[in-house]
Amino acid sequence: MVVNFAHRGSVTEAPENTVSAVEKALAHGAKAIEMDVRITKDDHLVIVHDHHLRRFDKQIKGNVRDYTLKEIKQFNIGAYFSKEFAQEKLATLDEMLTIIPKEVCLNIEIKNAPIVYEHISEILLTTLQKYERTENVLISSFNHDTLQYFQTEAPHIPLGLLFERRAIRLLKAVKRSGLQVYSIHPNKSHVNKRFIKKCHEAGYKVYPYTVNDVATYERFKKWGIDGVFSDNPEIFSAT
How many C-beta neighbours within 10 Å does residue 31 have? Predict the structure, then answer.
């Protein structure tokens, strides 16, 4: 079965990684959602891609880690998208876990660069256990050392490795990571039929990012792709 992830929610219809974006993705019938996590000054998990907030408002100084959750909740981060979302706030993982049904697969990408968040993996696992969401979840990161904690403390939770580099050395890098890898998440530009075949032979599922073109998606499907990350509702709602 092909599993397509709504990449940061439905980002063509609402500000990325927000409650509104996730609700719109769910309304499209998305069966899987991807989101990014970082931590605040007081160690709350917030859903945000960048280590700063300037993507939303160039007037917001400093980094996510410089603010407490209470302080971050004072910022309106949706006006850049449209006036409709002018009052949108940064969401916490706790909030997301209360609105995303357990039957929807959740890919949580741990953002641990360029700022390293000490104990982010521990905080994430504790939160998932609190909401009984250690099933139907996939934990991924570009920082492969970050995933070691999950392999040790929660080996039943599947791990996905993100890669930006070209595929020629990618499988060697997977083996060097020392992780029990479930899936590989490569940049779509490095994916071809041979690469998918090699990954499957090694026992890995392949989920490229970010596939928004339907023709590309259909080509990947013919090659045996396991799923994609997409901003396109036509793709992420497909099965």
Answer: 21
Q: Is 190 a catalytic residue?
A: no
- Give yes or no for a contact between 137 and 125, defined as CB atoms under 8 angstroms apart: no
On whether the CB atoms of residues 91 and 46 are closer than 8 A, the answer is yes
Tell me how far apart the alpha carbons of residues 108 and 99 are, in angstroms, rounded to a whole number.
15
Percentage of the chain modeled with pLDDT above 90: 90
Task: Point out the catalytic residue in the list 7, 51, 144, 185.
Answer: 7
The residue type found at 209 is: Y
How far is C-alpha 203 from the geometric centre of its chain's CA atoms? 22
Continuous H helices in the chain: 19-27, 69-72, 93-99, 120-130, 148-153, 170-177, 193-201, 214-222, 233-236
Domains of the chain, earliest start first: 5-51+93-236 (3.20.20.190)
Could you give the dihedral angle defined by the CA atoms of residues 164, 169, 171 and 175, in that order, rounded to the nearest 10 degrees?
A: -100
Tell me, yes or no, if 49 is annotated catalytic: yes
Strand pairing report for 32-39 and 45-47: antiparallel
What pairing do the DSSP bridges indicate for beta strands 5-7 and 45-47? unpaired
- Name the active-site residue from 28, 44, 49, 52: 49
pLDDT below 70 — which residues of the chain? 165-168
Name the percent of the chain in helix, strand, coil, to the closest 5: 35, 20, 45
Q: pTM of the prediction?
A: 0.96
